[in-house]
Amino acid sequence: MKVGIIGCGYVGLVTGVGFALKGHKVTSVEIDKSRVGQLTKGIVPFHEPGVQKGLKSVLKQGNIRISSSMDDIADCEVILICVQTPPQPDGVINLQILESATRNLVSVLEQSPRLRTVVVRSTVIPGTTDKLVAPILQGNSSALAKKTAIAFNPEFLREGSALQDFLNPDRIVIGTKSGMAKKMLKKLFLPFKASIVWTTPSTAELAKYASNTLLATLISFSNEIARVCERTPDTDVEDVLGVVHRDRRFSFPEGKGSLTAGILSYLKAGCGFGGSCLPKDLSALIAYARSVDQETPLLQAVATVNVGQSLRIIDMVSKALGGLEKRKVAVLGVAFKGGTDDLRESPGLRIVDALLSKQAQVFIYDPLVKPVALEGYKNKRVTIASKLMEALQYADACIVTSNSPEFKTLRRWMKQEKNNHKVIIDGRRILKVSGDLESNYYAIGRARKPV
């Protein structure tokens, strides 16, 4: 099929490359001409495993083209809108970019007599597809309304495995009231093995928020249990949640054994959640519920626990060092998690900001984040390290805020005699520490043994 993609950001690019890898002919439109130039050369401006390799492959095959002109998607059978819906200070999402893209699309659709389906893939609150997008595309022209179907198709992509998630989805959710849309989207998703869940646009829109806020809730729940463990002798949140993980309701038979549900990876204590989705979607759902006069005390508590987790880590390192003023602290991992370079809503950066407010000197290291992305932190009290040992060299303490595999090598560093007085705050529970190394080792959710 001829597929058009509006927006070559994170979701749009993965979607375009994914459909092209499945054999569709894709035209992706991006208004940022410098990004168009990069992508045309096969250069992806963010880190996401497999995407750059995939882009180069489909460019070579001729299955994708990158353009800055909407006119180039006029003849596409399916057009997916993948633009940002950024949060406002009150949590309400800003729909201006989506509205603008939709209005610009109208004149393009009028150029061709082709029947086509327009799919909203941006994350939006319930009612957006029906009450904003559909009236723009269908409201002013009966002819356009007859040849244009509307649908909503949420993405469930995890940063660090987004392309694989796209190519091998666990479910495909499509909200539409149009028979024509169903027919065309069945054809679009024919190369995929997952079953399609057909529903209304509003249900699909709300399901995306429900899915992400559940994940956020599991993380905050885990961190609250971790806080209880820290005050309870002879307990460790890893062991406590490990027992919960073994509940048969979280697993299913597989041969002679069983497989645990992937969702359990979110039932794990750490620094809190960040990134482009969970914080934004949690705030947006709270704001939407408020707009329909519905209180959300549980969801608000999830947000409160998440922000408080970073402050708890600051309290932990402050007590271990006897204060933070003029102390040297390495923060390892400032992307919101390992396997990505995304700094949005990063717990690591919240910790950096808090350390600076306490007058500490900070050394930042992340194996995937480019120094240019941290330019705003360059001052006399912040050093951007290019290597792990460079960040640790002068540090009185280090805080592990990302689950990057490289940080597991810290055990070897801890064993060196010159470092045995230095404090380790394991905010991601990636280290296995015992014996003499425990004296200066502090971990989320682990009761301290008497020294």
From TrEMBL:
Which stretches make up the UDP-glucose/GDP-mannose dehydrogenase C-terminal domain? Answer: 330-433
> Which positions bind NAD(+)?
R35, T85, T123, E159, K280, R344
Record-listed substrate binding positions: F156, L157, R158, E159, K208, Y266, L267, K268, A269, G270, G274, K337
**Keywords in alphabetical order:** NAD, Oxidoreductase
One Pfam match: UDPG_MGDP_dh_C
Cite the InterPro entries for this sequence: 6-PGluconate_DH-like_C_sf, NAD(P)-bd_dom_sf, UDP-Glc/GDP-Man, UDP-Glc/GDP-Man_DH_C, UDP-Glc/GDP-Man_DH_C_sf, UDP-Glc/GDP-Man_DH_dimer, UDP-Glc/GDP-Man_DH_N, UDPglc_DH_bac
Q: Which domain of life is it from?
A: Bacteria
* Catalysed conversion reaction: UDP-alpha-D-glucose + 2 NAD(+) + H2O = UDP-alpha-D-glucuronate + 2 NADH + 3 H(+)
Name the pathway it acts in.
Answer: Nucleotide-sugar biosynthesis; UDP-alpha-D-glucuronate biosynthesis; UDP-alpha-D-glucuronate from UDP-alpha-D-glucose: step 1/1
In alphabetical order, the GO MF annotations are: NAD binding; UDP-glucose 6-dehydrogenase activity
UniProt keyword annotation of Cytoplasm present = no
Question: What's an example GO BP annotation here?
Answer: polysaccharide biosynthetic process
Q: Which family does it belong to?
A: Belongs to the UDP-glucose/GDP-mannose dehydrogenase family.
NCBIfam families linked to this entry: NDP-sugDHase
| Name of the molecule in the record | UDP-glucose 6-dehydrogenase
* Organism the protein comes from: Candidatus Daviesbacteria bacterium GW2011_GWC2_40_12
Give the taxonomic lineage as stored in the record: Bacteria, Candidatus Daviesiibacteriota
